[in-house]
Amino acid sequence: MTDTALAGASPDQAAPGRTKRPASRPAAKPHGQWKVDGTAPLNANETWKQEDNGLNVRERIESVYAKHGFDSIDGTDLHGRFRWWGLYTQRKPGIDGGKTATLEPHELEDKYFMLRVRIDGGALTTEQLRVIGQISVDFARDSADLTDRQNIQLHWIRVEDVPEIWRRLESVELSTTEACGDVPRVILGSPVAGIAKDEIIDPTPLIHELAERFIGDPELANLPRKFKTAITGHPSQDVVHEINDVALVGLVHPELGIGYDLWVGGALSTNPMLGKRLGAFVRPDQAADVWLGVTSIFRDYGYRRMRTKARLKFLLADWGPVKFRQVLEDEYLGYKLDDGPAAPKPSTPGDHIGVHEQKDGKFFIGATPIAGRLSGSQLVKLADTLEARGSQRLRTTPHQKLVVLDVPGDQVEPLVAELDALGLSARPSVFRRGTIACTGIEYCKLAIVETKLTAATAVAELERRLADLVETEQLPQALSLHINGCPNSCARIQTADIGLKGMMLPTPDGDPTPGFQVHLGGGLASDSREEAGLGRTVRGLKVTADDLPDYVERVVRKFVADHTEGQTFAE
Ligand code: SF4
After folding, report:
1. Which has fewest Cβ within 10 Å: 61, 63, 309, 509?
2. Which of the listed residues 95, 146, 484 should we mutate to test ligand 1's pocket, taking the one with most ligand atoms within 8 A of CB?
3. Which Gene Ontology terms cover its molecular function (predicted)?
């Protein structure tokens, strides 16, 4: 069997040693793999993606839609290709979550957009931060959320303002290119790349190379679904690599030196799977080729028939890591990769909260808002504040936090106080530190419940109610609380100690009320867990949004009462 035939074998085909399927059985439907089944589109999305690449919509936005307004936008552009430039229509205010599943999409949709600013590696200068903040003030009703993929999201954007927003972003080398859509999304990168004392390898040159060579490349702009990348060289493994389509994790090979451990096929959503190691050691000079190879496998062999089965994780689940690596090496790289060990388990948290010394003797400060919520004015003030204290660089993180870089030692404490006044705590409570929330019903058309305010209320309530445990130093060191507005998993509910999936819950009087299905016991390497794992749904364990603080308080008090010496909450 040729390599190509091996690579293209459908999971429905008989494997060697297995009984062949009876001839009378109907042939399995094609998966829509381009290299196996041909490129004829098998669903409406694949049809319009082939008819006109999503990247091409930019020209129409600038020359037609921005001039003639929302009602002039072609439907396929609006609900499809706009994403290739980071634009989604947002939810009309005031629509109850119970109606999300019953209304038509156009009934849920407002004439405003969410705009996602792509920040590869989370790396920002204060000048760039100020530009984003001012765009928010001028065009986005002062909205600005840090996402858990290192982007900044603005809301209330009018299509008329998009060209000017792009002009301002691009004047400081920022963009919204492929911030959404079936493309290589923002590249997660270690927020302490290049500055941490204990860094194994600085991934910054690699992230720059990937962004410059491949983002906006039409050859990679029609993938079966979204494609997520994470790269870190920090021992805390701070980029949630287990839930990305492709990830490179820095390590020292005992014989070959510094390089990366290759992971493939992680993703959450409604069918969560953790990524798998291919057992391959990637030298720094091989890393860009390996990334391109994995992305190209997804483009060429990914399943395109059903969008619910199109993520890379489904291909990996069928092929397995051995075959995936073989196809990568034989068909895409043209050489074998060396075998390599796993990176050692992290021993420090990957959220980088607090004050830490850099390798050059300056300091970095990790600080958190509540559940990623900020405003444009805050971003502008933050840029001014950092510059006044001698810093001109910062990073967003995959934990909805910020890391300020290059702070001189004598400026640390004044800056910590000023950050606090701006709503960014460098010494947060365990609740504030561990809570993240997705966009939720405020703006998201798929949402069933509110999330950001629910998170803020829960954090404030828990800080007040559990003050006695703070005083007696009995609180767990870490506790992650992740809140989603619907069954999708934008806030990674399956990877939290307590993950909450938004849903409407029945009440005794018959009126459904917003609430959550509870997942317990998930976590990733960056949470300092011994073993990454997905949380489990506890059957029947649901909590209303109003009762959420009560529920978490009970769980924490039970942990404090029952835990053994040294046991973490995750255990
Ligand atoms: Fe929207 Fe659901 Fe994602 Fe939250 S989890 S942002 S509600 S799609």
Report:
1. 509
2. 484
3. sulfite reductase (ferredoxin) activity
What residues form DSSP beta bridges with 190? none
How large is the greatest C-alpha to C-alpha distance in the chain, in angstroms? 79
402-407 sheet: strands from edge to edge: 123-125, 393-396, 402-407, 363-367, 354-357
Predicted pLDDT of residue 567: 72
Ligand 1: atom nearest CA of 444 is 1
Q: What is the pTM of this model?
A: 0.93
Give me ligand 1 centre to Cα 92, in Å.
15
β-partners of residue 296 are: none
pLDDT of residue 11 exceeding 50, the answer is: no
Alpha-carbon span 431 to 446, nearest angstrom: 27
pLDDT digits (tens, 9 = 90+) for 509-526: 888 999 999 998 888 877
Report whether pLDDT(250) > 60. Answer: yes
Q: In 3-state terms, what secondary structure has residue 394?
A: strand
How far, in Å, from the CA of 505 to the mean position of ligand 1? Answer: 18
List, in sequence order, the alpha helices (H) in 198-240: 204-214
How much is the pLDDT for 369?
98
Distance separating alpha carbons of residues 548 and 242, to the nearest angstrom? 28
Q: Could you tell which of 180, 490, 517 is best to mutate to test the pocket of ligand 1, judged by most ligand atoms within 8 Å of the CB?
A: 490
For ligand 1, mutation pick of 90, 373, 439 (most atoms within 8 Å of CB): 439
Q: Would you call 79 exposed, middle or buried from its count of C-beta atoms within 10 A (0-12, 13-18, 19+)?
A: middle
Nearest atom in ligand 1 to the alpha carbon of residue 439 is 6
Extract the tokens encoding 205: 């040159």
What is the spatial distance between Cα 524 and Cα 402, in angstroms, rounded to a whole number? 20
Q: Find the residues whose C-beta lies inside 6 A of ligand 1.
A: 438-440, 444, 446-447, 484-486, 488, 490
Distance 500 CA to ligand 1 centre (A): 12
Query: How far does the centroid of ligand 1 lie from the alpha carbon of residue 442, in Å?
Result: 10
**Cα angle at 389 between 385 and 395, to 5 degrees?**
70
Distances (CA, A) of 101 to 444, 483, 542: 13, 20, 20
Q: Quick one: 25 exposed, middle or buried, by C-beta within 10 A (0-12, 13-18, 19+)?
A: exposed
Question: Is the ipTM beyond the 0.90 threshold?
Answer: yes
Ligand 1: distance of its center to the CA of 7 in Å? Answer: 35
Task: Work out the pLDDT band at 24, boundaries 50, 70, 90.
Answer: low
Residue 302 has pLDDT above 90, yes or no: yes
Show Cβ contacts of residue 42 under 8 Å, excluding neighbours closer than 6 positions.
Answer: 30, 32, 304, 305
pLDDT in tens, 351-376: 999 999 999 999 999 999 999 999 99
Nearest in space to 173 (alpha carbons), one of 230, 131, 205 = 131
| Of the listed ranges 2-6, 151-155, 183-187, 305-309, the one predicted with least confidence | 2-6
CA of 492 to the centre of ligand 1 (A): 10
